[in-house]
């Protein structure tokens, strides 16, 4: 059950959203874990059960789970103003950083130490996400059915990544013809043979 909104100030909600937007590391699910520690364990704005229910709804909606979850919690605690304020302050630092980083990314990659740092960030993010999944799993997986469903989801995800790829949009499954061959057939000549005015010795 959610805590009474009268006990929560809009300023504190704004500070939490802005802090997560600045200091959040590891992507959406890692920020969800940081949000859980703040709103469930530190401030006790929501219970563990309510947080997991809201997290399930946020994960099913379009967009990142962290943004959706923070917006939902802000709206539930302080109404529409709280939801808009939480989402805006959470996204604002990321938007500014992404615009700046996108403008200088090519220059960053040319500097070997910075390129190595960016590669290391990618590896560290994998570890952070794995730790978050383990932490949330301890609170969520309580029955054999929950474990079976989690294992099935992991297997399905691995199978999709391993052998999935982008499906061929052509219904017959055939690869599109080479453009040069299509041009050759259009002009009534064999694409393998040299055209008019072409030197057959050129290769």
Can you describe this structure in just a few lines?
The protein is mainly α and 203 residues long.
Blueprint of the fold:
Elements: H1 10-23, H2 28-42, H3 48-60, H4 65-110, H5 112-140, H6 144-163, H7 179-186
Secondary-structure element order, N to C: HHHHHHH
Q: Give the tally of β-strands.
A: 0
Rg calculated over all Cα atoms = 26 Å
Structural class: mainly alpha
Could you tell me how far the N terminus lies from the C terminus, measured between alpha carbons in angstroms?
Answer: 75 Å
Name the overall outline: flat
Average pLDDT number:
75
Beta-strand content bin: under 5%
Contiguous low-pLDDT stretches (5 residues minimum) are none
Q: How large is the count of helical segments?
A: 7
Sheet of most strands: none
- Helix % is over 70%
Task: Describe the 3D structure.
It is a single chain. Helices cover 71% and strands 0% of the residues. The protein is mainly α and 203 residues long. α1 packs parallel to α4, α2 crosses α4 and α3 packs across α4 (65-110). The mean pLDDT is 75.
């Amino acid at each position: 059950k959610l805590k009474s909104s009268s006990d929560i100030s809009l300023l504190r909600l704004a500070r939490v959203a802005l802090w997560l937007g600045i200091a959040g590391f590891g992507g959406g699910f890692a920020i969800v874990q940081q949000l859980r520690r703040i709103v469930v364990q530190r401030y006790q704005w929501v219970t563990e059960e309510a947080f997991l229910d809201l997290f399930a709804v946020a994960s099913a909606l379009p967009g990142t789970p962290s943004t959706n979850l923070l917006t939902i919690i802000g709206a539930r605690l302080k109404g529409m103003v709280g939801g808009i304020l939480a989402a805006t302050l959470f996204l604002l630092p990321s938007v500014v950083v992404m615009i700046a980083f996108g403008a200088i990314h090519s220059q960053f990659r040319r500097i070997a130490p910075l390129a190595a740092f960016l590669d290391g960030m990618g590896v560290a993010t994998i570890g952070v996400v794995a730790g978050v999944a383990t932490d949330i799993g301890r609170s969520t997986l309580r029955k054999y059915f929950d474990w079976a469903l989690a294992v099935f989801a992991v297997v399905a995800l691995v199978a999709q990544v391993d052998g999935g790829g982008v499906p061929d949009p052509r219904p017959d499954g055939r690869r599109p013809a080479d453009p040069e061959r299509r041009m050759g057939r259009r002009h009534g000549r064999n694409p393998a043979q040299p055209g008019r005015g072409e030197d057959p010795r050129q290769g």
